[in-house]
Amino acid sequence: MKSAEVAVIGGGPAGLAAALAAYEAGAKEILILERDAKLGGILQQCIHNGFGLHYFKQELTGPEYAARFEERLLGASIEVLTETMVLELSKDLTVTAVSAKEGYLQIQAKAVVLAMGCRERSRGALLIPGTRPAGVYTAGLAQRLVNMEGLLPGKEVVILGSGDIGLIMARRMSWEGAKVKMVCELMPYSSGLSRNIVQCLQDNEIPLHFNTTVVEIHGKERLEGVTIARVDEKTKKPIVGSEKFVPCDTLLLSVGLIPENELSLQAGIEIDPVTGGARVSQERQTSLPGVFACGNVLHVHDLVDNVSEEAEIAGAAAARFAKGQGKQGREIPVRAAGGVRYVVPQRVFAREGEELTFYFRVGAAYRPAKLSVLSGGKQLLSRQKAIMTPGEMESVRVKLSKPVDEIILIVENT
User: Fold this and answer.
1) Domains along the chain with CATH numbers
2) Are 10 and 34 in contact (CB under 8 A)?
3) Is the pTM here over 0.90, yes or no?
4) What confidence tens digit (pLDDT) does each residue in 69-78 have?
C-alpha cells in the first residue's frame, strides 16, 4: 500500500500538466501512473508540427511538446511509475494497479485525477460487411507503425473518415510514397480542423468526398479493394446504384475517438452520454468527490494546448481538495440547447462576479452563427461568428453579474 495526496492516472499531456499544476498548488505527494514504458502518451507518435502555438507561443512537434513538460518534472518531487496498469478506482479513492517494477499495489489517495485519454473507434463498431483481410487499420495504429516502427502499412490507400488523425495520415502516407486515392466522409462536412484539410489534403492533391462511406471490404489474405457509395444526407443510408469499387491494399479508419472511461464507470461516476466523459464542475471535479477528469478522457479536444490548460485546472483543484479546500457555492446546472451538441463543464459552483469558461461543440455547420448564453430567459451574452463546425471546439467566457439558476448555451444560424 502506497499513499499519495494526488494520484494521476495517465502520463500523457493531460496527466503531465495536471501533476505539475498540483505540485505548484502545494501538493507534496504526487504520483503519476502510466501504462506505457514512456511518458507523453499519444504525443510520442505525433512527429508533425503544429503543437504549442497557443500554450508555448511556439510551433513544436508532439515529442517536443511532451519533452517541455517532462523537463519540468525533473525539478519537481513527483513520483512516476511507468509500465503500470490501473485496474480499479474505488469510491474511497483507493487505486489498484499492477506494475512491472512494484508488482501488485494499492494507492490510497486524497484526490485522483483521471487523464487516461481516449481510444479509436474500430471496424467492429462500424459493422462494414465483407471479409477480414490484412490491411485494415485505425489511423492511429498506422501512425504508430510509420512514425515509431518505421513500417509502411501499404502502397494504395483509402481513408474512411476525415478526423484530424486521418487527415494527418493522408499526408504522412503520401509523403512516404504511398498513393492515397481518397478520403471518404459520411457527413457533409469534415470532422477535422480546417487547417488540416488545407495542409494535408489540398496541398497534396488528395480528394475528399463528402456524404460517402465504405459499404464493403474485399479480399481474403490481403485487402484487395473497397466498395464505396454515396449516402442520403438525412438518413445516412447508402444510395442504391451509387456504388463504386476502388482497388486498394490499405484502408485506414478515422471514424471517431472514445474517452477511456472504464475506470470511471467502475467507480460509479456519472457520464455525459454525448461526450462519453464524466460530467464535471468548472474545477473538473466529477460526481465522485475528490475525483477530477481532464483531457480526452473528459471530452475529445482538437488542440493539445487546450488539454494542458484544462489539466492545470483539474490538477490545481485536486491539490486544494487534498488539503480540504474544495470549492464552495451553489450548484448551477449548465445545459446545451439549439445547435449546441454538448458543453463542458455541465455544472458550476459560481459566485456573483465570477468569470467562467465553457467549451462546446455544435452539431452541424452554421454559417453565419450566433451564440447566445441565457439564464432565466434573459441573455447573459451574445456573439456572432462567420462559421461554426462540429470539427472545431469552441469556447466562451461568461461573467456572472448577478446570481443565476441555470446557464443555457444556444447556437443558431443568423
Assistant:
1) 2-119+258-327 (3.50.50.60), 122-255 (3.50.50.60), 331-413 (2.60.40)
2) yes
3) yes
4) 999 998 888 9
